[in-house]
Here is the input.
Amino acid sequence: MVTRRKFFRNTFLASFAMGTGLTSCSQSAQSEDQKDNQPSTDFGTPPPVLPTVIATWKNEKAVAKAMQVIESGGRALDAVEAGVKETEADPEDQSVGYGGRPDRDGIVTLDACIMDEKGNAGSVCFLQNIKHPISVARKVMEVTPHVMLCGEGALAFALEQGFQEEDLLTETSRQEWEEWKKDSKYEPKANIERHDTIGLLAIDQQGHISGACTTSGMAYKLHGRVGDSPIIGAGLYVDDEVGGACATGVGEMVMKTLGSFLVVELMRLGKSPQEACEEAVNRIIKKYKDQMTPEFQIGYLAINKRGEHGAYAVVEGFNFILQKGDKSREFESPFAI
Ligand code: ASP
Here is the structure.
C-alpha cells in the first residue's frame, strides 16, 4: 500500500524528474526499499558536480544572482552572499532585510549568518537599520576573531566597517503592524509564500560548498527575540566534506534541535540529503507535537558533496528553488503531516 508519506515523496520525485535535465533527486530521496544500500560514511572522491544553488522559497532572483557569480568563476561564498542580498534589498519581501515585518514594538530587527567551505562562520543578530546584515555577518567572519555580534555592538561594528544606517520599515510593513496592534494576537505565520527567511546553499565550480541565511524573523516577535537563522548549526550549517543544510520556519524548534547541524551530521553518517531532512523534521514532530499549532511550519533544505539535494517540511506549503548549471526549477517540498 502506498502510504501518505510515500505518496508525497513519490509525487515529488516524479515531478522533479519530469521535464528537467537536472540531476534527479531520486538519487537523494531513495525508496524505503533502498535504504539498506545506503553509502558508507566514506564519501571517497566525489564525482564532478555541476555548480548547484538551492534556496528556500521561490527566491528566483537570489538563485540566479548566486549562479551568475559562480559562472563567472566566483567562490560559493561570494555567490551565497550576493544571492541573499537580492532578497534583503527587496522591499516586497516582508520577512528579510529592507521591508521586513517589525517586532511588536514596530522595530525591524535582523538576523543573518554565513559559512564558508573552510568552516569559517560569521553572524549578526538583533541588528537594526542595516540593509545587508549578511554582509555584516561576513565581515564579522573575516575581520574579527569572533563568530557572532549582537544588537548595538553589531550596529557599531557595521558602521565602523562603512555600512550606512537606513530606515528599513516600509510603509506597507508599518501599516500592517498598525493593523496587527488593534488586537495584538501573536500568531506567527510561517508559511507566507515568497515571504520568509532565505537560506541559500551553493556549490561552486571547484565543488566547494558555502551557505547563507538571513531574516527579519517571526513577525511581531517580542523585542529582543532572536531566532534560529543567525545561529550556526540551527538556521545554517556547512561542512565542505559532507554538505550543507538550512532551515526556515518556527526558529525556536530548530534551535532546540540544532536542526541544520543535525541534517549535515546525518548525511555524514551516510543518509541522503532527503533522508536527513526527513529525520530532522520527524524528530521535531516527535518531541514537540503538543506545542504545534495548525500554522506550525519548519522546512529544511540540504545538499551533499555529490550535488544531491533534499527538502522536507512539517506541513504542506514549503517550497524551494534549485538551479544546476543554467537550469532552474521551483518545487513544492514533501511534508510529514
Ligand atoms: N526561522 C525564522 C525565525 O524563527 C523565521 C522564518 O523562517 O519564518 O526567525
